[in-house]
């Protein structure tokens, strides 16, 4: 019988706060560093609901999931294993508080984001900023 090794589905959230700020978390577990809030999709869970759940768990924020942004599937995007992340644009009010897998959660101005981010989150945020500026999404 053949053994299949499939990618693992994940979600990431670009959480917009008033004042053109974005929420990032400082990861508690390796790989360490700043990242978008997100995580693994549970079996039987819709992806948009997984995004809202992960945002709440890691930042304490109740988010409004506004739209699906893009799906990132480069096999090297996560050093732990092959993951596929569906990224959602979200809105929230309040100030984030790190919990669960997040050692810290913080709101950054869009022009003051950390330079070094975990995974492919630098690419994701560059794509998001280009989308906000031009209305154009990343090409496949």
TrEMBL record:
SUPFAM superfamilies: Nudix (SSF55811). Keywords: Hydrolase. The keyword Hydrolase applies. CDD domains: NUDIX_NadM_like (cd18873). PROSITE patterns: NUDIX, NUDIX_BOX. Residues 6-131 form the Nudix hydrolase domain. It holds the Pfam family NUDIX. The keyword Signal does not apply. One of its GO terms (molecular function) is hydrolase activity. InterPro entries: Nudix_hydrolase (IPR020476), NUDIX_hydrolase-like_dom_sf (IPR015797), NUDIX_hydrolase_CS (IPR020084), NUDIX_hydrolase_dom (IPR000086). Belongs to the Nudix hydrolase family. This is 8-oxo-dGTP diphosphatase. It comes from Archangium gephyra.
């Amino acid at each position: 019988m053949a053994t299949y090794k499939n990618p693992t589905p994940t979600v990431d959230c670009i959480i917009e706060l008033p004042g053109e700020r974005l929420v990032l978390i400082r990861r508690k577990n390796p790989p360490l560093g700043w990242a978008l809030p997100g995580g693994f999709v549970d079996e039987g869970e819709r992806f948009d609901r997984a995004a809202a759940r992960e945002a709440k768990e890691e930042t304490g924020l109740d988010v409004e999931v506004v739209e699906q942004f893009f799906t990132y599937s480069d096999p090297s995007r996560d050093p732990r294993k092959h993951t596929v992340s569906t990224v959602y644009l979200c809105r929230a009010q309040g100030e984030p508080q790190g919990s669960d897998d997040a050692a810290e959660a913080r709101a950054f101005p869009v022009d003051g984001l950390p330079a070094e981010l975990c995974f492919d989150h630098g690419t994701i945020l560059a794509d998001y900023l280009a989308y906000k500026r031009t209305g154009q999404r990343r090409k496949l």
